[in-house]
Amino acid sequence: MIRHKLTLCQIQDKHKQRNGVLRLADATISPSVTLGAKIADQLRCRIVSGTLAKGEVISENQLAREFGTSRSPVREALRELAHEGVIELARMGAIVKGLDAGDVQELYDVRFLIERFAFSRVAAQSDDVRSALCIELTQMVDKMELAVRHGNHVEFAAWDLRFHERVVGAAGHKRLWHMWGEIREIVHATLAVVTERRLERCPDDMSGSLEQHRELVKALVVGDEDLVQAVVQRHLEETKSLVETLFGLS
């Protein structure tokens, strides 16, 4: 049973009191980040959620006033978001491009390529290595479940991201890790927004996501590469479908 539920805005306000801006990963994943990265996190979440709509103009000066900083960290944030393709830089600011159905499809195309390879590579590792990793992954799913009980979508998204990121890292492939880094923050923001909407709509709906993550762990324990790939594909296809539905793109 959910004891309390924080909306994205409430969590942002809570974190503003502490350090000025919200970092979705917070200390759980990213203990030290720049102010520009923190600003980028908030803007990214607003863009993904639609709070900042496609075509909307973002002013450097306005953002600097909002976050109580100089324009330098704001420019850093805008450059990061432009690199991710969600805004287009303009004079003294940027124009929001947002995420459309094509962007979501491409995001999950890349996730599938990365994670299918990573999970398969991990499945081929020794029993001892897989066993140790699966203990870690199980603990992460437990933390995700605890976050659901508390209605905390920020914590859920952080541990969800860390779960998948841990497997990508365990694959021991530098180029793959670099590819993951290119989509990491968009994946994280999408997870946070989707989780918030799912918790608002029906908290019990999260049980399916938790079970899918436990199935991924079970497949790794067995070490069957074909089974692992099938479970990864099913999980990502269902997640993509959910994103499209909740974002009104289907």
UniProtKB/TrEMBL annotation:
<dbReference type="InterPro" id="IPR000524">
    <property type="entry name" value="Tscrpt_reg_HTH_GntR"/>
</dbReference>
<dbReference type="InterPro" id="IPR036390">
    <property type="entry name" value="WH_DNA-bd_sf"/>
</dbReference>
<dbReference type="InterPro" id="IPR008920">
    <property type="entry name" value="TF_FadR/GntR_C"/>
</dbReference>
<keyword id="KW-0238">DNA-binding</keyword>
<dbReference type="GO" id="GO:0003700">
    <property type="term" value="F:DNA-binding transcription factor activity"/>
</dbReference>
<dbReference type="InterPro" id="IPR036388">
    <property type="entry name" value="WH-like_DNA-bd_sf"/>
</dbReference>
<keyword id="KW-0805">Transcription regulation</keyword>
<dbReference type="Pfam" id="PF07729">
    <property type="entry name" value="FCD"/>
</dbReference>
<dbReference type="GO" id="GO:0003677">
    <property type="term" value="F:DNA binding"/>
</dbReference>
<dbReference type="Pfam" id="PF00392">
    <property type="entry name" value="GntR"/>
</dbReference>
<keyword id="KW-0804">Transcription</keyword>
<protein>
    <submittedName>
        <fullName>Transcriptional regulator, GntR family</fullName>
    </submittedName>
</protein>
<feature type="domain" description="HTH gntR-type">
    <location>
        <begin position="33"/>
        <end position="99"/>
    </location>
</feature>
<dbReference type="InterPro" id="IPR011711">
    <property type="entry name" value="GntR_C"/>
</dbReference>
